[in-house]
Design brief:
mainly alpha, 2 domains, 11 helices, about 0% strand
Length: about 220
């Protein structure tokens, strides 16, 4: 269990580094490509450490037992998370180095209308949903590590983007950190066509594939039999 906690902590603090002066100093010395390569390799190593430690860790006692209906709600939440992740990656994203800030219309109607951090919120929703299903030390350390990294990291990243990107203020004005907040406030609107039907279809296909093979791949039944 200690190895899993250490792995999750390493993953978390690694992803806090881009919000510190370390990032700029490293890039000044080694260049962007070297920084990106080192950061990517370190992230993969941390994930491997987390997964291997998670598989070896004891389950421990559950703090609660979720009702059977939760499994259906969880499946729906994870479908939503996959849509955020796929659409977030497949849409011009200001969090991707060198990518342009989405146009105002796309920001106010596409996936960024839901949240300006679709990929990170998708990961967080996936992680939180799994934490609810595994309310034990093992689940808290593993899935909680992903959720904390995604949400705290994306929140802190906004400060750096405000300083780096000239068009960030306009993008931020049409979007929100919290999902659906900009829509509720009338600054954005849901438009599935603007999100992209093909992106939704890819996310749904990925969701169905993982749902079908979940037991054989991960040893856990995702839906009540």
């Amino acid at each position: 269990m200690n190895a899993l906690i250490a792995a999750s902590a390493a993953f978390f603090f690694l992803h806090m580094l881009p919000g510190t002066p370390f990032r700029a100093r490293f890039m000044a010395l080694a260049g962007w490509q070297i920084y990106q390569a080192v950061f990517s390799l370190a992230s993969l190593a941390a994930i491997w450490w987390m997964v291997s430690s998670f598989n070896a860790a004891p389950y421990g006692d559950k703090l609660w037992v979720a009702p059977a209906a939760w499994q259906w709600l969880k499946a729906a939440l994870i479908l939503f998370a996959y849509i955020l992740i796929v659409a977030g990656f497949a849409t011009p994203n200001p969090y991707t180095p060198g990518a342009p800030i989405p146009e105002k219309g796309l920001a106010g109607e596409g996936v960024f209308a839901i949240t300006r951090h679709p990929v990170m919120w998708g990961i967080a929703i996936w992680a939180i949903a799994h934490t609810i299903s595994q309310p034990n030390p093992r689940g808290f350390a593993f899935f909680g590590g992903f959720a904390a990294t995604a949400l705290i990291g994306s929140w802190l990243q906004q400060k750096r983007k405000r300083a780096e990107l000239a068009g960030w203020a306009a993008f931020e004005a049409k979007t929100s950190f919290w999902p659906f907040a900009a829509i509720i406030q009338g600054r954005a609107s849901v438009n599935l066509k603007a999100i992209g039907w093909w992106k939704i279809a890819v996310a749904a296909g990925l969701w169905a594939l993982i749902l079908y093979f979940h037991f054989s791949w991960f040893g856990a039944q995702p839906l009540p039999l």
